[in-house]
């Protein structure tokens, strides 16, 4: 059997990690994979995570199974973090998943169960793994217009125009904040207009919220998701704890499913549990438990929020510096959008050839679509990137 296998296409983002590692130049700069790095290039373990791990080590008495949903306390804590008081939590089922990607996968599985012929609509562009998973699962996928490559901002009119094609029972995948890969986001009013359209069409929203706290703040970044929750009868939310808790390798994520009424929640929750059982049985617990401990402990939570805010402000500072440096070096306002974008990423509008040229000439690694990870920069490397862009981009 194994000799019938064909090589699979490499994931563009993960492939870039390997290319970077192999580059012998010590001046190289990694702006590829979406992992936060501090000014010295480390991905630190957050203070509250370390403290929670210490408490857990001292107090945990068993490693026996939890529940198929994961510990219900995790689901409750995530509902509070993401949805706050926007909706009656009794309407929302939740399962722990292996990372945000696990939540996305389970959301698609749910769609496959409920409406296998339906179409999942994704923004053009979106995180490439959304498309890859949909293709692998054999699901129908259509793109809606999103990014205006000329201005590097959202083309909202084009987006609404393409969403006119959405049919009842379709799923529309929205990035709750910090759009990946572009960094260009809808305003709250625009999210409201999208919600109205989805209600009119009878479509379900799947909100991918992988970077809460990396854009405008923990509450601000959840505002769109909360608004959608107040307007839509049903929706799904795939949340990741990888980035905002810095626990990438622990694989902690959560799929939330908001039903029309609290009476429907039992069946929704049962279906989510069933999907966990079919795909991997019990979800990972360690990362989810740390998150639960932090969110339920005032002192740990305050420290986590303070550190997350430092991270966010650091990235915002780098954005401002980069926009200013590009203004200086290109003698134009062409790249001012970098300061307006939010989250870890900006798509800066270089062609694939220019991206390759920058890699070759300057050892600066960004994804082929010109997505760069702001957190891969520091105050010293911002001018180097600006020089590379100014010298290479037409
Ligand atoms: C990214 O977009 O770089 C991150 O979400 C990491 C990944 O798994 O691709």
How is the secondary structure organized here?
Layout: H1 12-22, E1 29-30, H2 47-59, H3 72-83, E2 92-97, H4 99-114, E3 119-124, H5 128-136, E4 140-145, E5 147-148, E6 153-154, H6 156-163, E7 171-175, H7 188-201, E8 204-209, H8 218-231, E9 235-240, E10 253-258, H9 265-279, H10 286-295, H11 298-330, H12 337-340, E11 345-347, H13 352-362, E12 364-365, E13 371-373, H14 382-392
Parallel strand pairs: 1-12, 3-4, 3-7, 7-8, 8-9
Antiparallel strand pairs: 2-10, 5-6, 9-10, 11-13
Helix pairs in contact: 2-10, 2-11, 3-10, 4-5, 7-8, 11-14, 13-14
(2S)-2-hydroxybutanedioic acid is lined by residues 13, 33-34, 127, 129, 180.
Describe the structure in your own words.
The protein is 46% helix and 14% strand. The chain is an alpha/beta fold. It folds into two domains: 10-44 and 305-392, Aspartate Aminotransferase, domain 1 (Alpha-Beta Complex); 49-296, Aspartate Aminotransferase, domain 2 (3-Layer(aba) Sandwich). It has a seven-stranded mixed β-sheet with strand order 2-10-9-8-7-3-4, with helices on both faces. Strands 1-12 form a two-stranded parallel sheet. The chain has a two-stranded antiparallel sheet with strand order 5-6. A hairpin with a 4-residue loop joins strand 5 and strand 6. Helix 4 packs across helix 5 (128-136), helix 7 runs parallel beside helix 8 (218-231) and helix 11 (298-330) runs parallel beside helix 14 (382-392). The chain is globular and about 60 Å long. Bound molecules: (2S)-2-hydroxybutanedioic acid (LMR).
